[in-house]
Amino acid sequence: MVVPFRALALAFRLVALVLIATGLVRILGLLTPSPSWASLTYYTVLSNVLCLVWVAVLVWTTARDLRRRGTRGWSTPSPRFGGAVMEAITVTMLVYLVVLVPTTFQQAGDYEPFTLTDNLIHIITPCLLIADWLLFSPKGTFRWTDPLRWALIPYAYLLFAFTWSALGGTFGGSRRYPYPFMDVDAHGVGGVALWIAVLTVALVAVGYVFVAADRLLDRLAARGDAGSTATPGARMPRARPQRTTCMARAASVSDPVSEG
Asked: Where are the transmembrane segments (predicted)?
């Protein structure tokens, strides 16, 4: 299903843009005398930057379409790329909740999880991207091969992180590895490879959950449309109605003049 109201989508996306930007400003310390640019070497921060850019594109596209095409319709320029961004930031949330927070509680240190900044970049931003997809992105567009493609984003970061570490670079100013599960000195090559394999399986599984949900929501919406057009009191035929994607339905409610 898609909520085909661009004004509502624009309002939601503007709020999302402000919240994502707030999280980045806080984690990078942009309002302090000494910003923490070294934080840009972490996947968490880079994935939030990716979300900021994507949501900014959504805001611009929605505002443009609202002016040119009217209030009804959807404004997501590339739903499948949006799925890749959603998957990338979902990785941030899952690794934080399943790996990093439990590790923090097991080790000594002054770091405290679930602060406002942590919640913004690890939990709120992922939830905003998922909500935007659920409410304002056309369904029926994801392919079963997409989760494998989406995994290239975190794998690109792994390549960068291990290469940077091998060249003598540090993370956060002093750490050789950005995350505990990537610490080859502590876990060995085999241990790190096992961690990556397990997280890869989880990552791809979450991607397939998104694909399955995308197709299920599209089918439910198609059945709802078929039911709403049926004559009251008439029996529905047993044959499955022709499948209509949310993209086609949303396009049909757009201003026909602007489509020319």
From this structure: 7-28, 40-60, 81-99, 119-136, 148-172, 192-213
